[in-house]
Amino acid sequence: MGAHIQEYRPSDALHPYVQRFWMGRFDAPHAHGLALRVVPNGFLEFILHLTDHHCDLHGSAGWGPSPDHTLIGVQSETYEVRFTRAVEVFAIRLKPAGFCTLFGVPVGELLNTHEDLVAVLGARFRAFADRLRDAPDAPARIQAAEQYLLQAVGRRDLAYVNRAAELIRASGGTLRVADVADRVYISTRQLERAFKTTIGLSPKQYMRIARLNRVQKLLREGRHRGLADVAYQAGYADQSHFTRDFKLLVGEPPVRFLNEQDAQVEVTGDPRVDS
After folding, report:
1. Which of the listed CATH numbers 2.60.120.10, 2.60.40.1930, 3.60.110.10, 1.20.120.80 matches domain 3-156?
2. What is the DSSP annotation of 177-241?
3. Which of 58, 70, 97, 210 has a CB 3.0–4.6 Å from the CB of 161, allowing a cystine?
4. Which residues in the chain are classed under CATH 1.10.10.60?
């Protein structure tokens, strides 16, 4: 197994902003290293390296090591991460509107990018990251992260975009855009503009990502009777539509991709982690 990820649920106070904390260890099991393809999940990731070894990401200048403190923006397509040495990280997965609310940075500006978190959030973040790296274990790191994030709560109100994104994720991307707009009491056009400004994606694009994540969950948990059943449970009109949508975002058929990922990645959750 090349990668092990342990997930932890945030406190109730941070739940509107943070989807998960997680710890990851990534080993390069052979001379060719480890390459993982990451499917869009609709969130932003704070990746804080706990050792001097980093992963490699592809940018405008080609492949290169990620910053000590890396911000992965919302992604609209699958991307690759490479490891040539053992890498350990602590990460914070933030909801898009939650990130915008906490830090005042429009997520749309970070679409399909990775950035140096210190350049985005400033020296105060570096001081927090240094404390977190020195913490002895996962509970201590989570406590430090909660304290840091809770200081920003209450500065701004959560926008209706956050409620709309929550509805989309909870439905697995099966709601109509008009129904989401109705539930947050705005027009469809307002919702589309707000998503583009705040998240960088249209509501329909975000729904496609939410549906894809629902598909991955069904496949990994084995709660289905074949791909046709997965397509039905995920709200697709038919199996061919499901396979076409998956290949569009991921680049290969679902079973092949999941088999490859399951051979390399093990994900475990805190007993308190919800779905």
Report:
1. 2.60.120.10
2. HHHHHHHTTS-HHHHHHHHHHHTSS-HHHHHHHHHHHHHHHHHHHT-SSSHHHHHHHTT-SSHHH
3. 97
4. 160-263
Q: What is the mean pLDDT of residues 79-89?
A: 91
DSSP letter string, 79-119: EEEEESS-EEEEEEEE-HHHHHHHH---GGGGTT-EEEHHH
Measuring CA to CA, which residue among 55, 50, 114, 49 is closest to residue 83? 55
Contact 91, 48 (CB under 8 A): yes
CA atoms lying within 13 Å on the CB side of residue 116: 8
The pLDDT confidence band at residue 216, using thresholds 50, 70 and 90, is: confident
d(CA 121, CA 137): 24
Q: Which amino acid makes up residue 77?
A: E
Burial class (CB in 10 A: 0-12, 13-18, 19+), 158: middle
Q: How high is the pLDDT of residue 270?
A: 60
d(CA 32, CA 83): 9
- Where do you find CATH 2.60.120.10 in the chain? 3-156
**How far is Cα 36 from Cα 19, in angstroms, rounded to an integer?**
21
- Cβ contact 45:81 at 8 Å: no
CA 48 – CA 131 distance, rounded (Å):
11
Owner of token pair 């990401």: 57
Residue pair 65/55 in contact by the 8 Å Cβ criterion: yes
- Across 223-231, average pLDDT: 72
Q: How confident is the model at residue 59 (pLDDT cuts 50, 70, 90)?
A: confident
